[in-house]
Specification:
Blueprint lengths: L3 H65 L4 E13 L5 E11 L2 E2 L4 H11 L2 E8 L2 E7 L12 E3 L4 H7 L4 E7 L2 E12 L2 E11 L3 H9 L11 E2 L5 E3 L3
Parallel strand pairs: 1-6
Antiparallel strand pairs: 1-2, 2-3, 4-5, 4-9, 5-6, 7-8, 8-9, 10-11
Length: about 240
């Protein structure tokens, strides 16, 4: 026969077992909900990136067509320019021929870059081919001090220049300031040969929309989502 003490022990043991079963079920349910929520947030980001990839390809076609509309490509006398190697940061002297599109001289013609950028809502850089690589001669891209990033030289052995020399487009990700951009480059052709390169970039994602979406999410009263990039840099955080 079971004593009253044994019955109490059985009830306690049964209660503990039921508590653990229910707690485990609730934990698994919560984990599944959080996993589904994380997947939904990830889909929002991926949709933004896919939309911008389409926009990038279209922008490359339209921007180059607009560029050619300024007129015929012509070259004049050479001048020496101090360039900064994009990868090493070293200074080097390069010879740059005067390059015109119709009446527009391209070297340091940031106004043209701004006009193109305003039409497409993109970042734009124009590169001219030299004997030492491709030189950035006009751009909308600025450094942390708000200065245009000009006279950077991309050497001929870089993957982007090798693709351009083969007449191929080059797609990549570039970090401009604090943001990641989807980037595309295409050769500017003259008499069947590349004489320059067009670079355009669009923000990989609209962080403001993502930040607004994330700010409305809370988990377990005090939990919240946040976003970091592949290098561990915090992109979106409620604080």
């Amino acid at each position: 026969m079971l004593t009253s003490g044994s019955m109490v022990l059985l009830l306690i043991a049964g209660g503990i077992y039921l508590y653990r079963v229910q707690t485990g079920s609730l934990q698994r349910y919560s984990d599944r909900l959080l996993s589904e929520e994380a997947h939904s947030l990830n889909q929002v980001i991926e949709m933004q990136i896919r939309e911008r990839q389409v926009r990038l390809r279209t922008g490359l076609d339209l921007t180059l067509e607009l560029l050619y509309s300024f007129g015929e490509i012509t070259f004049g006398n050479s001048r020496q320019v101090t360039a900064i190697d994009y990868f090493t940061g070293d200074n080097t002297i390069v010879d740059v021929k005067q390059w015109k599109l119709g009446r527009e001289q391209l070297y340091n013609n940031n106004e043209m870059a701004d006009r193109i950028s305003a039409l497409g809502g993109i970042q734009v850089s124009l590169f001219q081919k030299t004997d030492k690589g491709y030189l950035n001669i006009a751009t909308t891209v600025k450094d942390d001090n708000g200065e245009r990033i000009l006279n950077t030289l991309i050497s001929a052995n870089s993957p982007v220049i090798q693709a351009i020399e083969r007449g191929e487009d080059f797609y990549d990700r570039s970090r401009l300031g604090d943001d990641w951009y989807l980037a595309a480059s295409r050769a500017i052709m003259h008499n069947g040969k590349p004489v320059g390169m067009l670079f355009i970039g669009v923000p990989e994602k609209d962080v403001s929309i993502i930040r607004d979406l994330f700010s409305k999410k809370t988990y377990y009263d005090t939990g919240y989502p946040f976003l970091v990039d592949a290098t561990g840099i915090l992109l979106v955080h409620p604080t």
